[in-house]
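I have been asked to look over a protein record a colleague put together. The record follows directly below this note.
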Amino acid sequence: MKLQMIGCSHHDAAVEFRERVAFSGNQIDSALDEFRRRYPKGELVLLSTCNRTELYTTTDEEFELDREAVIRFLAEQHHLPADDVVEQMIYRSGHDAVEHLFTVASSLDSMVIGESQILSQVKQAYDLARQSGSAGPLTHAVFQAANHAAKRVQNETEIHRRRVSVPSVAVGEVVPEVFDSLVGKRVLICGAGEMGEETLRYLIQAGADDVVVLNRSLERAKTLAESFSIQYAPWETLLDQVVQADLMVGTTAATEPILTYQQYEKLRPQRRDRVLLVLDLAVPRDFDAALDEFPNLYLYQIDDLQAACQRNRHEREKEWPKAQRIITEETQRLLVNLNHRATGPVIKRLREHAQQIKHDELERLLPKLRALGGEPAMQKEIEKSLDRLINKLLHPPLSSLKEDAAEGHQKGLVKALRELFRLGD
């Protein structure tokens, strides 16, 4: 039995196709149940994210679960022609499938290298398969090893510690330069789009506990605020909110600055020289560049933050070889363990088979020796000689079997020994 992966990602399939083969939470549950019913001897872990859909299954000569069968299964789940699906799918098996999973879990195959979300998505996919009963011994071993490999990459390289998105750099690197903590600081988010939501997520992770969302559409501000259990306010209150703010974030699509030099100059006496950090993440810019002239106001614009992102990307690239070595080591370690695990039962049954033959022959021979006056010491020597004979006869095939296991059972010696000595499954 070996692992195979059939799937697509942002590397090789357009978003239109990825949308057609993606699975929602309920669809994953249904697919796992159907797979288990159709292939009771197979295993399946289904990973579906916005950037990839991948089915990790087991394949064995004893039951039909090859590439075509999995593609047909996937196509049926989405009511698509199998021919349309097969053209877009990448197939990997054995070593390549394991190494690919480790690479995915370690975020080396992500659109943003080093992003942390993918490992939790891999874990969730495995947990769902385990709960549904579609995971099994091989997928248990492989996905647990993938988690270990990803943790090694996280702990032994700098890939995950270098922020490469504008919001993550703004919150993770700029904010700490101005504030020791965001606890108790009034944070004002201007804009309720994707950039605002992503920045808000980082801010809350960083400890922000007093956040207000403003948006020209009050309904969108309300929706975003309620999803994070924070406050929202009408756009018309912007200048009043500036007076109270410690940190302002601009993520709107406005064509003109939402806060000008003249507006802030009028508000400044009310702030009583309190520090104000302004993060302008918008294009066109949300804040008048001249604001940076005020004392105690620190303005960071999109170009500053993107430059930091680019530096961090270069640093991540330097760490890639180290991360890849870890993936290679962990892949090889798992495959060796799996291959030796597969040979263990065969070796045990072969030895038991030989010992049974020895026992049967001794049962036949010893009474005759005793009738001829054979001494107990002679009987023991005969038994020792038979043990040495068994060991000498078994040593070459067992050595070859272990070598074949280390190479991935390429010669098929496990199956051959089972058949030659009729050892059963």
Notes: The chain has 15 helices and ten strands. The chain has three domains: 2-156, 166-300, 345-420. The mean pLDDT is 86.
